[in-house]
Amino acid sequence: MSKQNKFLTPILVALVAVLAVATIVFGTFLLTPRDLPTLPLSVADTSWPRIVTEDELRSFGALNGPVYWAGPRDNVEYELTITDSGTFYVRYLTDGAAVGDTTDRFLSVATYPNIDGYDNLVQAGAQDGATSTLTDGGALIVTTTGAPMSTYFSFEGVGFQVEVYSPDAGKSRSIVEDGSAELLK
Predict the structure, then answer these.
(1) 135-180-112 Cα angle (round to 5)
(2) Are 88 and 81 contacting, i.e. CB atoms less than 8 angstroms apart?
(3) pLDDT tens digits for 21-77?
(4) Looking at domain 50-183, which of 3.30.300, 3.40.1000, 3.30.70, 2.20.25 is its CATH number?
(5) Cα(128)–Cα(4) distance, integer angstroms
(6) pTM over 0.85
(7) Nearest Cα to 41, choosing from 52, 33, 31, 32?
């Protein structure tokens, strides 16, 4: 064997060994399951309604806000819906309910954008049977006899209104008054 071949043989063996180790390490990395971060949802996503995690909901609200919800809850799935008019609905599905269940048995929070919600609520609060309250934080809260399971609120000068609906009588108002209905961010 020539001197040159004696010198190249150990280098080639070392190179093949390095490539083999690199292939094993890289292959293991590719085949190992791991949690990859999800991209934030946007209004452009076309499949609505959909089940989302709390983190996805918060990311969505931060990206597309204002979007309100009733805070985190145990034993629920969060359903997010966006209508063609731009209304955002967050529903709290229970008992294995299917996405898009049309019954009114779930806590729901709707954010209606692009309306003068505050002035609308001033008018609604002046109607017979309506109750309105102005909070220290500037929220106008209104309940009406026409929608007794819902409580509405808005702030002066903003372009949206929020509705909290609960199938439990009086619950929607307590959710608004105790601050559970909050901006997703």
Answers:
(1) 75
(2) yes
(3) 444 434 443 344 434 334 456 656 556 899 999 999 999 999 988 999 999 999 999
(4) 3.40.1000
(5) 102
(6) no
(7) 52
First to last CA, the chain: 72
Place of tokens 């901006």: 183
pLDDT at 15 over 60: no
DSSP 8-state secondary structure symbol assigned to residue 2:
-
User: Would you say 71 and 180 are in contact if contact means Cβ atoms under 8 Å apart?
Assistant: yes
Nearest to 93 by CA among 73, 79, 103: 79
Closest C-alpha to 39, from 27, 55, 24? 55
Q: Where are the chain's structural domains? A: 1-34, 50-183
- CA distances (Å), 171 to each of 77, 101, 120, 149, 166, in order? 19, 21, 22, 8, 6
- Look at residues 184, 167, 174, 127 and name the one whose alpha carbon lies nearest to residue 153: 174
Q: Which three-class secondary structure state does DSSP give residue 159?
A: coil
| Residue tagged 């309306």 (tokens) | 115
